[in-house]
Amino acid sequence: MNHENHEKRIMYADDDYESVKTLFKLRAPSLFIGLFLGIIISFVISGFEEVLASNVQVAFFLPFIVYISAAIGAQTGTIYSRDLKTGRAGFKHYLKKESILGLVFGAIFGAISGLITFIWLRDCLLSISITLSCFIAILIAPIMSLFITQIFQTIREDPAAGSGPVATVIQDMISVLIYGIVCSAILL
């Protein structure tokens, strides 16, 4: 009896070997998802108009909160994707370590950004909002990125090409929500 492996092979986006048409097909779906979710982020931000109107300084830190959590998530996704391709990646092992890293980076970057905010603007409540938002967003970022990357691997799609844009836009949305909710709770 012939037991052929009918499992779909993952096709990796490789600029050295693939045509532009193939690279477009591999990369476009996740980028279109990012486009639509990015537009939704604008609607999410508009939901926090009251807190933004009450203190314009809240807007100063939105790009920072979004960037730092997305950067940490991107590192996780990139490293995990690379190791998935080599066959050396263990999800549970990564989950444990990335959870610890999220906690550590979140605590350090939250404290530093809150301190700088207080020194700069002398606003204790805004500083607390920045500290908590940064901590929570960074705590979640590597875990969320790891899960998104694993989902792409599980559905047999190139995790490097697909998970980056999707994980980034989802993390951006989560960060905006965290920041808006924390600032609204503390500052309003």
Give a nutshell description of this structure.
With 188 residues, this protein is mainly α.
What is the topological layout?
Elements: H1 20-46, H2 49-54, H3 57-86, H4 91-121, H5 124-154, H6 159-187
Helix pairs in contact: 1-6, 3-5, 3-6, 4-5, 5-6
Write down how many β-strands occur, each being a DSSP E stretch of 2 or more residues: 0
Q: What would you call the structural class?
A: mainly alpha
Q: CATH class, anyone?
A: Mainly Alpha
| Relevant CATH superfamily | SLC41 divalent cation transporters, integral membrane domain
DSSP helix count?
6
Q: Mind explaining what this structure looks like?
A:
It is a single chain. The protein is mostly helical and 188 residues long. The chain has helices at 20-46, 49-54, 57-86, 91-121, 124-154, 159-187. The protein has one domain: Tetracycline Repressor, domain 2 (Orthogonal Bundle), CATH 1.10.357.20. The protein is built from six helices and no strands. Helix 3 runs parallel beside helix 5 and helix 5 (124-154) runs antiparallel to helix 6 (159-187). The termini are far apart.
Task: Output the keywords.
disordered N terminus; mainly alpha; 0% strand; Tetracycline Repressor, domain 2
